[in-house]
Write a structure and sequence with these properties.
- By secondary structure, this protein is an alpha/beta fold.
- The chain has helices spanning about 15-25, 65-80, 90-100; strands at about 5-10, 30-35, 40-45, 55, 85-90, 105-110, 115-125, 130-135.
- It has a 4-stranded mixed beta sheet with strand order 1-4-3-2, with helices on one face.
- The longest helix is centred in the middle third of the chain and has 13 residues, at about 65-80.
């Protein structure tokens, strides 16, 4: 069986701020930008991975969410407790310098981890934590 990741979702509360970060700072390309019923979904991805996409979606975008669920999701997003994704890079330190220079919220400066990677972490404009890992030479 061949199973591959195609899309993952990240909740954002301001698509324009999210685009400024994911497109302009991280260098991801915009693949789709769709509005529907007052909501917006923007799909971005790395030019190096044309078959993997990140969908930047409104918090609690499901029509099955109650108003209370929507409020709870917005509160969790505002607290920065929702997880984002983990990116890989060939140069963690250079990426850190570029993202830090953009004014992004630093969670962790680059450091070597005991499990074989060098990584750092930031929060995106919506508060999602994103990690960036670089495999260390064996």
């Amino acid at each position: 069986m061949d199973v591959k990741l195609a899309q993952c979702f990240i909740a954002v509360d301001d698509h324009d701020k999210a685009l400024a970060f994911y497109r302009d700072v991280l260098g991801l390309e915009v693949r789709n930008d769709v509005g529907f019923e007052g909501m917006r979904w923007v799909t971005v991805g790395s030019p190096l991975q044309p078959d993997v996409e990140i969908v930047l979606e409104p918090p609690a975008a499901s029509p099955d969410f109650s108003p209370a669920d929507r409020r709870a999701m917005a509160e969790l997003l505002a607290k920065g407790v929702l997880r984002g994704v983990i990116f890989s890079t060939e140069d963690c330190d250079a990426l850190f310098a570029r993202v830090e220079a953009s004014g992004a919220d630093v969670v962790q400066e680059p450091m070597d981890q005991p499990y074989g990677v060098r990584d750092c972490a930031f929060r995106d404009p919506a508060g999602n934590m994103l990690r960036f890992t670089q495999r260390r030479a064996a």
